[in-house]
Amino acid sequence: MDSDPYSLVLVTTTLAAAGHPSRNDFFVKMEKQAWTTQDKEMRWWQMDLQTAEATTTALSVEMTAYALLAHLWQSKSTVATSLPIVKWLLRQKSEGGGFKTTQDTVMAFTALSKFAQRTMFLNDEDQVDVVVRSKRDTIRELIINRMNSEILHEVFLPKDLDDNEFEIFVRGTGKVYFDYSEGYHSQRTPETPNYYSVNGKVGSCFYKRYFHLW
After folding, report:
1. Are residues 30 and 90 in the same domain?
2. Which of 98, 119, 140 is the endpoint of a domain?
3. N or C: which end of the chain has fewer CB atoms below 10 A?
4. For the whole model, what pTM was predicted?
5. Do 136 and 57 belong together in one domain?
6. Do 137 and 115 fall within a single domain?
7. Rg of the chain's alpha carbons, rounded to an integer?
8. Dihedral sign (CA 106, 109, 88, 159)
């Protein structure tokens, strides 16, 4: 099974969900087959097969989603160990919010939803208020809590955004994750794409905390 990463990930996830006594042994084997970026920020699993790129990508997403579920069902696993997997999965999303195929999209959203349940809001009363603003006015206001944390909240930026700048104000208790994407309806991208730089700082306001991106 060590030579078949897909089967190993699938069995490990099944054993972790069932609480099987051998789940830790399989978990260690699965972890040894993980791929990691040089900066340790992202982790994923993939098959070493000479197949089409689209199939390999879809299979990698599905395997990584299973691995994330295995992490969430492991009692010793933490948010810190799961977050690099989440980051890689989020990086694979298409502009429309899905992935390559129906199968990997279902598994990825299942795993990400489970991660959200475990980490984003620990109490029913926890809530995060999000305000997206341009230089002139408010683009969108969102209230995110345990009831709607599994829903993908999308904000479409106006085409006439001043200097391509916008701000995101976040206040409350809980965790939210931001993902920015830009698409072009043409065969070629502009010679000078409108890249956005993101800077953040954390401060306190009375008993609440806020996160400011600009």
Report:
1. yes
2. 119
3. N
4. 0.72
5. no
6. no
7. 19
8. positive
